[in-house]
Amino acid sequence: MTILDKSNRYIQDNIARVNPRHKPVYHLSVPIGWMNDPNGFVYFDNQYHLFFQYNPYDTQWGPMHWGHCVSKDLIKWEMLPVALAPETDYDKSLGCFSGTGFSENGKLYLMYTGVIESEEKLVRQQQCLAESSDGINFRKYAENPVITTEQVPEGYNKYEFRDPKLFSRDGKYYCLVGTKREKGNDPCEGGEVLLYESMDMICW
Hints:
mainly beta, four-stranded antiparallel beta sheet
């Protein structure tokens, strides 16, 4: 059983533990666990798909998954199985952080930040890609991570490099990624956005 399968099994096995008195009547909430940042809001296959940062195992921040729900009217939402779980060499220690949903040619793509922590406690953040034909089951690319810390320009922080925004324009793909300058004497030190381009979403 995969980490993703275990996550979905845990949710189903423990929903009954949640007291419905503490659930909102109108606003979207998860069946169990912790949810935060909305991710990958996209229209695909005649439905709105909304993903979010999710820890199904606790009521506080933890190893990040991507929760998933759909709606036809943006009011009534249906919860779907977890879309992404931290289970690979490039995301398994801290999880699948925020990113983007992108629909093209009958497929739904998710681009997210895979985060791992080294033995030296250095956090490594890199951009990864997953795809789905049915909008429910996602396959992570074998080429992941598709944008690595080696592609961060000199002078920028390689350990705070996250939250990709994927889009296309005139036959080419583009990706915006948040980062910041390395500490130093630069008066522009602070948050910045890097722009990458690709012809295939794999090589950037």
